[in-house]
Design brief:
Distance between the termini of chain A: 19 Å
Largest interface: A-B, 35 and 35 residues
Low-confidence stretches of chain A: none
Number of helices of chain A: 7
Number of domains of chain A: 2
CATH class of the largest domain in chain A: Alpha Beta
Radius of gyration of chain A: 20 Å
CATH topology of the largest domain in chain A: FAD/NAD(P)-binding domain
Mean pLDDT of chain A: 91
Order of helices and strands of chain A: EHEHHEEEEEHEHEEEEEEHEEEH
Largest sheet of chain A: 7 strands, mixed
Oligomer: homodimer
């Protein structure tokens, strides 16, 4: 019955919330995909010591994630190591777009973690008009043109190298500490803080705290993209996804759990919400299947 | 600073929700009491196998509760093995009444578990007019009179023996399987299902599926009492406590977590809510302390 790219529930994010949802979803015998393109909650893995996840005293963040991934993945959800770029609602079925291919799912659970940055001025207005979150997807549109890459993750480095093979001037603005030796000419590495993206209907320049850079495109690589861009129409409350007590959002079939629904940014809150979200998603699917 | 019977936060119930709240409350350095008069979630302890608490695969309910109590109690919340009968709101301070004494707390977290039974017809109307949840508290009012004890727990047996020393006719209606050999005359053990409590302003009789018993008092011993009777004015939604996303209730300073806030009746949901409730309670206390 299960095709390779069709699932009952697609869980976006493999941190504590996503893994808790996957675990209970599999125990309830649903066909589950976990989309995790990075390394299972980098934020938690860096935690020196966690002591308030009841039942597992004094464990390192890394150790806790090993317990979590070992437990959840043993139950056989499909782990998809691709980044979900967009979610499109359809007729009782959602389509998920990654740089590589597309997937389908009857229900979606956002477990994308904290979005720790506010959007840049101009980012929302110019999205798709020069602003992009995916070089693999959109790079070709900038052949022979000038682009900047604002990156919060190492992943952005490969994307930048790829762009340097296509584009004219490529500016790399890492927003993390690292060794950028491999970012060779013609890539220009800038140590500057981006402030705003400016353009009249199309990106014209990137403003930083140091200079003004004329570019046709700005790529932004974050740990997780603003969910409102992933699925337009998803209702937010401030910066977080607005959820009801059963973790449903304003869009039928779309649920959310963990840090992306707001504070407290704590593991037990995330695993509890993941559990509730997947049970609510199963109830939703069962109704749709009957209809 | 801490007196023996004064706490920052009183947590009513020592199941997964209550212990999770106690753990994080202690880590946040608050003076915490956990009121648990029974044996830490009898319901969970009876679970043969639990496999969806992320990070602790294939553990027995009893084993899981050992992990939970070991972890939480190591952080030194005060464990009070008394049953909270009533909570009275006061001036930025709640008073908790047990059969033995009184306690005070700045904030309350209800973590009382599932109330699996509906109230009996007449129970709410006749509470305090012959209906009672505590023989130790109210027994003396029935000296020389006739009483019935409806019990869902073994604890009710001792209360009934106590009543038999005071009252005239004492009927014991156990609603669980057990050996009632110690319930000797004059106690009358009845195997009947209670249906309704009847009386005009005062208890007059108990109706069962088999007979009609004339009594002046009806004692009801459940795993947990209906919370609405514990704290009058607490808003319910159906049978469960109505909570907001931050686990606050309609009464400032009163929070709730776990099965008593509704389904799903699952461990991760309970521990997550316990964590959120205690952080919200701390925020509340800090505000009150500043005011």
């Amino acid at each position: 019955m299960a095709e390779d790219n069709k699932f009952d529930i697609a869980i976006i994010g493999g941190g504590p919330a996503g893994l808790s949802a996957a675990l209970t979803g599999r125990i309830r015998n649903k066909n589950i995909a976990v989309f995790e393109h990075l390394d299972f909650s980098e934020k938690l893995q860096k935690a020196h010591k966690v002591d308030n996840y009841l039942g597992l005293p004094e464990v390192s963040g890394k150790g806790l994630m090993q317990h979590f991934t070992g437990h959840a993945l043993a139950h056989g959800p499909k782990l998809v190591k691709e980044k979900v770029m967009n979610v499109f609602p359809g007729d009782n079925m959602f389509t998920l777009l990654t740089p590589q291919t597309t997937y389908e799912a009857k229900a979606i659970i956002f477990a994308t973690g904290v979005v720790s940055t506010l959007l840049f001025a101009g980012e929302r207005e110019l999205l798709g008009r020069g602003v992009s979150y995916c070089a693999t997807c959109d790079g070709r549109m900038f052949e022979g043109k000038d682009v900047a890459v604002i990156s919060y993750t190492e992943e952005g480095e490969n994307e930048t190298v790829f762009l340097s093979e296509l584009c004219r001037d490529v500016y790399f603005l890492p927003q993390y500490k690292g060794d950028f030796a491999k970012m060779r000419a013609p890539i220009k590495v800038l140590t500057a803080k981006p402030k705003a993206i400016v353009g009249d209907g199309q990106v014209e320049k990137l403003m930083t705290d140091k200079e003004e850079i004329k570019v046709h495109g700005v790529f932004i690589m974050r740990q997780s993209d603003p969910v409102e861009n992933l699925l337009p129409g998803l209702e937010l409350e401030g910066e977080v996804i607005k959820v009801n007590r059963d973790m449903s959002t304003n869009i039928p079939g779309v649920f959310a759990a963990g840090d992306c629904t707001g504070k407290p940014w704590q593991i037990a809150k995330a695993t509890g919400e993941g559990l509730v979200a997947v049970l609510s998603a199963i109830t939703y699917i069962d109704k749709v299947d009957l209809a």
